[in-house]
Write a structure and sequence with these properties.
The protein is mainly alpha-helical. It has helices spanning 29-41, 44-50, 55-68, 90-109, 111-117, and strands at residues 19-21, 24-27, 74-77, 85-88.
């Protein structure tokens, strides 16, 4: 299956935070974006489309997150005649907000060092695959 390519302006380099639980990434930037999209769209499939991923990929990320926390972050109901949907649980909203706050604080904490580190990085344009 051929992936749809879009022309995007390369994002600037920045540090990102991931929370590991054993070998699993409990939450990181992609999972946080998926949680935001689920909250916005009320559906795992719509959130997957909004984030440019397959439903299967989104479901696997949700499943990993739900297993990594004391209670699930996402509550979903199957589709059918009455429709389905998904929403963040109370814990899901709390975890997302806490993660976003930690990521903001972490970026601030390493800002000076990261500024110096950027000299080692290639220009963003150099890492963009050609169409």
């Amino acid at each position: 299956m051929k992936r749809k390519t879009t022309s995007r302006v390369p994002a600037p380099a920045r540090p990102r935070l991931r929370v590991l639980l054993g070998a699993s990434i409990a939450i990181g930037p992609g999972k946080a974006a998926l949680l935001e999209a689920i909250a916005r769209h009320g559906s795992i499939s719509a959130a997957a489309r909004a984030n440019g991923m397959s439903y299967r990929r989104a479901w696997n990320l949700v499943d990993t997150m739900n297993r990594c926390f004391v209670t699930p972050l996402v509550d979903s109901s199957a589709g059918g005649a009455h429709g389905g949907g998904a929403q963040l649980t109370e814990l899901g909203g709390e975890v997302l907000a806490a993660y976003q706050e930690m990521e903001t604080k972490a970026a601030r904490a390493v800002a000076r060092e990261f500024k110096a580190f950027e000299r080692y990085l290639a220009k963003a344009e150099a890492t963009t695959p050609e169409a």
